[in-house]
Structures are given as C-alpha cells and as structure tokens.
Amino acid sequence: MLDETEYERVAVLLSEGVGATKEYRERHGIPLEQVNRRVLFRPALDEYERLAGFRETNPLALYHHRISIYGSACERCGKVLRTPVASKCFECGLPAKHLPTRYS
Questions:
Q1: Beta bridge partners of 2
Q2: Is the Cα dihedral 92, 85, 61, 74 positive or negative?
Q3: Are residues 56 and 84 in the same domain?
Q4: Same domain for 52 and 24
C-alpha cells in the first residue's frame, strides 16, 4: 500500500501510461483489447515495485494500492475496513469505531 506522496509518484506514471495507450491505439488503429498495457504501464509498475517491494502485474490494480481509500483495521478481526467511513467491518460485522456500538 502507498501513502499519498508515494501514490502521487505512481499516479503521474499511470497518467502517462494512459496517454501512451491512447497514442498507440490511434497510431496503429487498434482496439484497447489489443494493446499490451503491461508494456505501456511498465514505468508505473516498476515504480510501484520499487516503493512497495512487490511486483504488481496489473496496472489497473495500482489505483487500489492507496492507503487513504481504505479505513482503519477492525478492532475485532484486524481486517482493514473497505472505506474510511465504513459503518461496519465486512469480514466480522463489528460496527466501525466512529459509530456508537452495542459492544462499547
């Protein structure tokens, strides 16, 4: 997972990959399905690996490796809440910390 500073570095490279994909499609007149996105997004994938120590192979997955889009860890099961404003843990059902709960 990336903090905001790290994510911004990857986001710039993702944006460049989108531009390269559009340019490649226009130049060759091919549909998106025929574009090798792993090649055009390699700089973003490489930067993510350098920052996180993990080799991601799907460039679209990088949009989800951003800490700020997830919530804190559940107090009961330890799984990360799906959003910062989740009303309960998806895994165990415990109401989120910021809401009044019957478990208090």
A1: 66
A2: negative
A3: no
A4: yes
Report the domain count for the chain: 2
State the Cα–Cα distance between residues 81 and 62, nearest whole angstrom. 18
Cα separation, 16 vs 81, in Å, equals: 31
Residue 84 and residue 65 share a domain: no
pLDDT tens across 18-47, in order?
A: 999 999 999 999 999 999 988 999 999 999
- The model's pTM: 0.74
Q: Could you tell me the residue range of the domain that residue 77 belongs to?
A: 70-104
3-class SS at 58?
Answer: coil
Cα–Cα distance for residue pair 37/57, rounded to 1 Å:
10
Does residue 64 sit in the same domain as residue 75? Answer: no
Residue whose tokens read 């490279």: 13
Q: Measure the CA–CA gap between 57 and 45, rounded to whole angstroms.
A: 7
Pair 2, 32: CB distance under 8 Å? no
11 plus 45 within the same structural domain:
yes
